[in-house]
Amino acid sequence: MSSRIRIVVGFDGSVDSWAAARFAVVEAGVGGGLVRLVHSLLDRIAYATLLPPELTGDCDAEAVRLLDLARAELLRANPGVDVQSMIVQRAPGAALVRVSRSADLIVLGRHGHGRAPAGGRFQRVHIGAVATHVLAYAACPVVVVGTVDEDALRRPVVLGLDAAAPSSPAISYAFEAAQRHGTSIRVCYISRPAGRTDDPHADADARLQLSQALAGWRATFADVPVALDVLHGVDPAARLLDAAADASLVVVGARDRSGAPHVGFGAVPETLARNAVCLVAVVRTQRQAVTRPAVIG
């Protein structure tokens, strides 16, 4: 991976895609990185809604105008970041998956614009239309953004981890993010009850496994405070949503390419991306672990 981070943003002019773009340039600004706004062509009604009245009737020209406006706005606030743009003809989910092969990070808004299944009318679409597809197939980590409060970025990072099968890429991403923003990590393992829920030995074993899994990263990122939590519940997503209430970011491992869920988490990434009040980072389990600090900052 290049030391110069390459961040791709799915940008359609919606409020959440603006939030995603602003978050991306802040992240890229730490290390002088590159941000590429990827825009899938919308219809005329969409551009009429998103842009000041100068409608040309040419969707390609309107797309260029929207991206030029976005670049100018982002560069005013972050002049040191290289902000580029790219217009694609294909559906946004497929386009973002394709460009993820040469990116270090994909950033998406929780909601965006799209077409209705019938009639082609401009509408607001749920995360499932684009982000769920990207979360399932992207070749790099994906961050889903709702709203971004820069002060909130100093809150702890929550890392959802399986003590028996920890995701090294997710651990690496969480430590890098915490170090970059000068905050701590709260590592959460969800223990599903299989008998007594107050068994101190089971909790102690889980904490030991977590400590062993994190040992190398704690040594590399010695300035990042770490807390270990064993949480009990039958629904890992619900418990992580509770933990994320006071977090800046929640990080979990993604499904592998075979389609099998990461052990112990099932559909947790998508549930978090839909519902968490903070940023959500979903990191593929097969991505190679990074040992040097601040790779994505």
From TrEMBL:
Signal peptide: none annotated. SUPFAM superfamilies: Adenine nucleotide alpha hydrolases-like. Residues 6-145, 155-284 form the UspA domain. It holds the Pfam family Usp. InterPro entries: Rossmann-like_a/b/a_fold, Universal_stress_UspA, UspA. Belongs to the universal stress protein A family. This is Universal stress protein. It comes from Dactylosporangium cerinum.
